[in-house]
Amino acid sequence: MLAFTLRRAIQAIGVMIAVGIIAFSMFRFAGDPVNQMVGMDTSGAERAAIRKSLGLDDPVIVQFGRYIGNAAQFKFGVSYQFRLPVTNLLMERMPATLELAIVATIFAMLSGILMGVYSALRRDSWLTHIFQAVSLIGISLPTFLIGVLMIYLFSVTLGWLPSFGRGDVVHIGWWTTGLLTLSGLKALIMPAITLGLFQMTLIMRLVRAEMLEVMRTDYIRFARARGLTTRAIHFGHALRNTMVPVITVAGLQFGSVIAFAIITETVFQWPGMGLLFVQAVQNVDIPIMAAYLMMVSLIFVTINLVVDILYTIVDPRLRSTVSRAH
Amino acid sequence: MTEPVLSVRNLKVEFASRRGTLRAIDGVSFDIAKGEVLGVVGESGAGKSVTGLSVIGLIDPPGRIAGGEIRLAGLRIDDLPPEEMRRVRGKRIGMIFQDPLTSLNPLYKVGDQIVETIRTHLNLSEQAARRRAIDLLAEVGIPAPEKRIDGYPHEFSGGMRQRVVIALAICAEPELIIADEPTTALDVSVQAQIISLIKRLGRDHGTAVMLVTHDMGVIAETSDRVAVMYAGRVAEIGPVQDVVKNPLHPYAKGLMGAIPTLAGDDKRLVQIPGSMPRLSAIPRGCSFNPRCAFAFDRCRVDRPEPLPHGAQSVACHLYDTVPAETAA
User: Fold this and answer.
1) How far is A105 from chain B (nearest CA, A)?
2) Which of A70, A73, B114, B212 is the most buried if burial means most Cβ atoms within 10 Å?
3) Complex ipTM > 0.85
4) Whole-angstrom Cα distance, residue B144 to residue B151?
5) Are both A130 and A28 inside the same structural domain?
6) Which of A73, A104, A127 delimits the end of a domain?
């Protein structure tokens, strides 16, 4: 088990180094960063001085080594536009994005699993048909359109929810949270639903399909022949067996929730990493783009690792194949 | 005679399909007494498994019991509300399925599955149920049960898993066990062990057993009585020695003729020509008549009803007291 985790961790580090190469090469393809930083009237000598102070004269491999070394310590250089360390900018924005992503994922998981289980067990109920229709909308409508439509309905027409921003936030150490204030919670509702809707429909359809599959298996039939209660069969035996693929998808999707947050954050002017990234793209702020890329990959890789470990907890068969492999 | 544990009368099971209703079971009747093993044989599709499933109330839609009645120790169970039928399942009727590899939930320890079943039906504490589970595992012949109880199904071999399944089927001391092809998925060497285990448990606990199989050898070894099914009906039923040594129904004769013997055999095994009709195309009269070497006019018109003939009961016009000439 430990060896398995270690091996997976080493693989994860390999992936991160590969991402580092891509992030680093962005600096070299997006033009001369010095030109981005200085005005038109800066002299050649001053440019050279800046170049030297930033270490841009060194060989590529040295620069890359330095970049990776710094990245490992979460140092991603200085933003071209803000003249502030990128790490500080990201850290400042990260709580907003993570809170949004986590709430969106919890919303997606809870409602997706509930709707999926319900529509698998009551195949002909009218509520199932409504769920199916909703899931079709969630899958086919683009995120930004849903966000804009919700703003139009709940902010402009009804005036119930704020159309942008994060509301009042509370500082807890370096973390800022909007979960503790009413305006923060109200501001979170629409972005979280917008962001989670696609995941919710995905999970609902997955749970439904898996559940229908599991309900046909011999062990469910045998559980019925043993006279277990319907609740024990549905929620003890069937649901747990549908959980393995659901955990995979939900875990992998958490990464894309953070990635998709770019769109949601733009629509709702949510002060998170995604919005920072979009602004960085508009201003060719390579350090921020590279750092964002690294951060998102780190989150992806970490989640994958956690999901792999979670499998073995849910499914005992994997536990033994994992230990037998060593 | 005391009341039989299981009494099935004129059972009819139908499946609604796009091309009309198919009758899978058409008027099946039999009894099983306390401690008795009834073997049910027949080809695939003869309705053996469906009969077993309808007794335990697990016919899935679009199938349904269309007629007849099923009584368990006198209590009518075919029309019980679902929740009451659930209490009968596992508690008063235990069931063993064909494939032990897929009968157990792979994500739960076998002990948890047994304890769960025990506690569903008997008012026992967690510890008491666990002790009982260990005793059960020991009784079905699992070595070191106090260790194995915390194993997962995939850590057991096929034969051992079938023993666990049997332990699950008997954990609430049912009056009746339905074993649906319990040995078909197992190695031949393990089959005999499982069969003798089922037989021993039935004897020790006075449990009635309905043993569904297509293996005549298993029947001959285990059963007290045997029912031969064909196309959703019982062709012949009677004590196992009589039916094996002296089958009456032409189909039963054919089946017994198809059993290989060890004693100096130079002749080919007997085959029954043709195959069983599909449910959508059951012939008029006796459903066996197109394959029967003895069929005469009446067989093509008139459906034979089961009539007693000695200790056996047979549904065939050859044994009808009404002379064939007058009927035709």
Assistant:
1) 25
2) B212
3) no
4) 11
5) no
6) A73
